Amino acid sequence: MASEIELLDVQAGYGRAAPVLRGLTVEVPAGTIVCLVGPNGAGKSTVLKVASGLLAPRSGTIRVGGVEVTGQGPQRMLASGVAHVLQGHSVFAEMTVAENVLLGAYTIKDKARVAARTEFVRDLFPVVAERWDTLAGLLSGGQQKQVEFARSLMVDPKVVLLDEPSMGLDPKATSTVFEQVVRMRDAGTAVLLVEQNARRALETADIGCVLDLGRVHISGPAADLLADPQLADLYLGGRPAEPRP
Ligand SMILES: Nc1ncnc2c1ncn2[C@@H]1O[C@H](COP(=O)(O)OP(=O)(O)O)[C@@H](O)[C@H]1O
Ligand SMILES: [Mg+2]
């Protein structure tokens, strides 16, 4: 089966500056969480911007569900099945949770479909259902992130792009958010996750990729990357402490 999204040999950058991505290849098979890790400034957000059509690649190929979509803008990419949850916070604090979630359905004309998707995301994210009529600004950071997840799933995307969902969250909220990422995968949406919080993200993901100098230079089962001592020293802030007997 074709991957939900493939970026093949992508070069991309900003204006006249040297390219940020220099022959990057990454794919997200159906039913998986693929995690791209790398330090601040490595180009993780740039990968997601290319994947969602916010930034056109200078060269390379992008396919969604096996169909080439290279060069399409964000609206076409969304219609093709790619949803993007941006880095930072993007809930509207003065609007209710319901209004924030329903913004994700603005492209859907069929009211019955909107109702069905609403029920789906309320089931998947219990906190969204519980706080449905609350102003979103009153929710914690982790709860707001789940509102953003729910909004992104309203279009029933093939793949959702998550840009550092744990940013600014405490460890408990981070765990909850990553549990919800797994639920999204289990409910049928493939996930391309980028994170600076590499260890936690690799513990959640099925496949891990390390971004370095604009390319993916190591990829494989996330558990293998976590177990590699050299990788741990280079990218994961050292090895975890040995568990006490
Ligand atoms: N809008 C932009 N205009 C110019 N340069 C940018 C822009 N966004 C990012 N960059 C540059 O591209 C590089 C990669 O940035 P980014 O993809 O945001 O990295 P990461 O998400 O891994 O921290 C950095 O050198 C950054 O300064
Ligand atoms: Mg970033």
Write the layout of secondary structure elements.
Elements: E1 5-12, E2 21-28, E3 33-37, H1 44-51, E4 59-64, E5 67-68, H2 74-80, E6 82-85, H3 97-103, H4 111-124, H5 126-130, H6 141-153, E7 159-163, H7 171-186, E8 190-195, H8 198-204, E9 207-212, E10 215-221, H9 222-227, H10 229-235
Parallel strand pairs: 3-8, 3-9, 6-7, 7-8
Antiparallel strand pairs: 1-2, 1-4, 4-5, 9-10
Helix pairs in contact: 3-6, 6-7
The structure holds adenosine-5'-diphosphate (ADP) and magnesium ion.
Describe this structure in words.
- One of its GO terms (molecular function) is ATP binding.
- This protein has one domain: Rossmann fold.
- It is built from 10 helices and 10 strands.
- Helix 3 runs parallel beside helix 6 and helix 6 runs parallel beside helix 7.
- The mean pLDDT is 94.
- With 245 residues, it is an alpha/beta fold.
- It binds adenosine-5'-diphosphate and magnesium ion (MG).
- The site of magnesium ion has 5 residues, from helix 1.
